[in-house]
Design goal:
Keywords: NADP, Oxidoreductase
Family: Belongs to the short-chain dehydrogenases/reductases (SDR) family.
Shape: elongated
Bound molecules: nicotinamide-adenine-dinucleotide
Distance between the termini: 66 Å
Number of helices: 15
Order of helices and strands: EHHHEHEHEHEHEHEHHEHHEEHHH
Domain Ketoreductase: 65-254
Region (Disordered): 21-58
Strand content: 5-15%
Pfam families: adh_short, Uso1_p115_C
Length: 380
């Protein structure tokens, strides 16, 4: 059986144009010799397809879908790769194969996952590119091997933990580079393809450390919450193209957590328990977009922003620190009758029309200490 690339040529050309705009070197050989780019399945692949067709009797199927999973040579990503392949997806198993801190590289991790998928009759290809320095290589592997991309799981990650006082700029930037900038680069490369085909699914891998903070992980927390913001915005921009973008904050056993949690706890937090949510969030039928899910040990819980009913003050000259202090309780009161769960910017015009009509603000009885003799430094 042969999947001919010619009907994918237009998409391929557009991708090449995009890759060139992004500074990548893209060869034209395949334009000249179409046969080089044909994806030839051999007999084993036929068996694989048959067995996958049986598996695609599941209501959620990924038959004919191509999924890129970054950092899927181990840990959570490997489990996603196995489960996507089991449901008929063609999987790009990307992994740099470095250490937890991001140094070194090896083909072994990705190769082993591909072998495991193939031994079970699935379809996968390995890619060893570093998401930071060669995201285009990852996408090229998907296009060259399978002719398309439908789903992107931004999962690759490293750790460079240090308390904030001791954290170097390099430790901070390296972690942001892999988690946040890497996800940005590859998602942006896939985006025009998703727009054109009116289908795309993206998962950003955030973390409870990003949502709540965690000692020693200022770099990691910043990157992970950055991914949540990226997810929320892309979900809005993706609406008219049927591109759904969600974020997960998982906790599971992997080399990342094995020094943090005791083995008896970790053994209950298996990485394969994260995969079902990821598969659902990238299926044809998913409604959710722009949502955040905390997931661990069989718990699947959506996280959302909550705004207290809040305090409305007239922004005139009676709008002072004392006026706020006087009503501090209102600012932080999450009374269920007045709280809201915002998913977009507030209507600030409406807010102003409401606050500007309010009477003078009471200054209360508590006085804020004078700042006399204190030095205030204002940096430009
Ligand atoms: N395990 C947890 O409890 C947990 C909790 C919260 C978030 N996460 C996130 O889940 C994701 C997967 O983590 P994991 O626990 O499976 O750890 P892991 O170390 O097993 O997996 C991360 C993979 O990413 C690969 N990688 C690192 N840098 C790369 C790069 N520049 N290019 C390509 N591949 C690269 C690594 O080689 C590794 O195989 C990470 O984003 C992590 O931050 C994990």
């Amino acid at each position: 059986m042969m999947l001919v690339m010619s009907d994918l040529d237009d998409k391929n050309k557009e991708l090449k144009k995009r890759l060139r705009e992004l500074g990548a070197e893209v060869s034209d050989d395949d334009d000249e010799d179409e046969d080089d780019d044909d994806y030839d399945y051999d007999d084993d692949d036929d068996d694989a397809i048959e067995s996958n067709q049986n598996m695609t009797d599941n209501p959620i199927s990924f038959k004919d879908k191509v999924v890129i999973i970054t950092g899927s040579g181990g840990g959570l990503g490997k489990q996603y790769a196995l489960q996507y392949a089991q449901r008929g997806a063609k999987v790009v198993v990307n992994d740099l194969g470095g250490t937890l801190g991001g140094s070194g590289s090896s083909n072994k991790a990705a190769d082993l996952v591909v072998s495991e998928i193939e031994s079970k009759g699935g379809i996968a290809v390995a890619n060893y590119d570093n998401i930071v320095t060669n995201p285009t290589g990852i996408l090229q592997t998907a296009i060259n091997s399978f002719g398309r991309v439908d789903i992107l799981i931004n999962n690759a990650g490293i750790l460079k933990d240090a308390s904030f006082a001791k954290m170097t700029q390099k430790q901070f930037e390296d972690v942001l580079d892999v988690h946040l900038n890497g996800a940005f680069k590859l998602t942006q490369l896939c985006w025009p393809i998703f727009q054109k085909q009116k289908f795309g699914r993206v998962v950003m891998t955030a973390s409870p450390a990003g949502l709540y903070g965690n000692f020693g992980q200022a770099n990691y927390s910043a990157a992970k919450l950055g991914l949540v913001g990226l997810c929320e915005t892309l979900a809005k921009e993706g609406v008219k193209y049927n591109i759904k973008v969600n974020a997960i904050a998982p906790l599971a056993k992997s080399r990342m957590t094995e020094t943090i949690l005791p083995p008896d706890v970790l053994n209950k937090l298996l990485p394969e328990k994260i995969a079902p949510l990821v598969l659902y969030l990238t299926s044809d039928i998913v409604d959710s977009s722009g949502s955040i899910y905390e997931v661990a040990a069989g718990l699947f819980a959506q996280i959302r922003w909550e705004r207290s009913g809040g305090l409305y003050l007239n922004p005139n000259k009676s709008f002072t620190p004392e006026a706020i202090l006087n009503k501090l309780k209102d600012i932080s009161s999450f009374d269920p009758s007045t709280t809201e769960y915002p998913t977009q910017l507030n209507d600030y015009n409406f807010v102003y029309s409401k606050t500007s009509m309010l009477p003078e603000n009471s200054q209360g009885s508590i006085k804020i200490k004078s700042l006399k003799d204190k030095t205030l430094s204002l940096k430009k």
